[in-house]
Amino acid sequence: MVIPTAHVNCCLLQRIAAFACALGVAVQAAGCGTATTTLNGAGASFPSPIYQRWFQELAGKGVRVNYQSVGSGAGVRQFIARTVDFGASDVPMKAEEIAKVSQGVVQIPMTAGAIAVAYQNKGCALKLTQAQLASIFLGKINNYSQLGCAAKPIKVVVRSDGSGTTANFTAHLAAIDPTWKQQVGVGKNVKWPIGTGAKGNEGVAAQLNQLDGALGYVEAAFVKEPLQAAALTNASGTLVPLSLQSEQEALASIDLGSDLIGSNPNPAAGYPIVTFTWILLYKTGNGSRHESLNKAFEFTLSDAAQAMAKDLGFISLPPSVLEKGRQALATVQP
């Protein structure tokens, strides 16, 4: 039996493509099936676990996404420089940043989550007042014995890169402590009074896992054994442990408004440090990438994708926010 050469070549290409995809290489097998488009994005490490899960799902739908978890600051810079197809940030872009993007900007909330005060100290259940939390990061409290636990030095770990997680965490500290507001302030980068620096939520979590007595701040999804999350006090004076219910309660206090941006650095109900996180898209100038971008983020804004949030340590977007997000996505043009 003679097998046509064209058939052999096509099958060979399919096998090569399958092998290359397994290695994470984008290959387009012309004439042998649906071509795969690769999108490049960069930004926030806060939502990285759920983004990576979503993008794995998308690979099976014909859209490959290469997402670099480089921090919100670097993500915004790359987005402005037009070196990526989309950006990601835990803090919405400022008007002066948007003005640098001639194609226009569409900012869409994708998911939400809590910032945990995570620590490694077995047998110590931290329940922090607002004054205690601020004092730890000001360096005024430096031993667990000052917090009702057995004596052990507190080894503070902070972000060293431009970070939306840092911006949201320092916004909370500024809202609860006048000294912090005056001496340190709010931002993606601040001059920390104390602490060892690490890059990304991943880097901070790694440091916390390596250092007995370490304490820092990370997205809740990064709190895994042997780490614990401290219970924190909200604006009404209620001590609240980290939980999906307490996070949702606080998130409900954030009014995103018509432009889909907003925050509440010191909510009166629920766990006190929660935030939405945004995907940054070009309003125009997307060209041949438009169809793939639309397909990718229609999926992430779908009920099926949002349902994955809980198991990954995030909060599904409320229905009203989801609908506004879908409407915003519809404004993105080729």
Low-pLDDT ranges: 1-34
Biggest β-sheet strands, sense, barrel: 9 strands, mixed
Q: What is the share of helical residues?
A: 25-40%
Annotation, overall tally of beta strands = 12
Counted up, domains total 2
Q: What's the total helix number?
A: 12
Order of helices and strands: HEHEHEHEEHEHHEHEEEEHEHHH
Principal-axis shape? elongated
Task: Summarize, please.
With 334 residues, the chain is an alpha/beta fold. The protein has helices spanning 5-22, 48-59, 72-80, 95-98, 130-138, 164-176, 178-183, 200-210, 244-251, 290-300, 303-306, 319-329; strands spanning 37-43, 63-69, 86-89, 105-119, 127-128, 155-159, 196-198, 214-219, 228-229, 231-233, 239-240, 274-282.
Please give a structural write-up.
There is one protein chain. Strand 10 and strand 11 (239-240) form a beta hairpin. The protein is elongated. Strands 1, 2, 3, 4, 6, 7, 8, 9 and 12 form a nine-stranded mixed beta sheet that branches. Strands 5-10-11 form a three-stranded mixed beta sheet. The longest helix has 18 residues, at 5-22. Helices cover 35% and strands 19% of the residues. It has twelve helices and twelve strands.
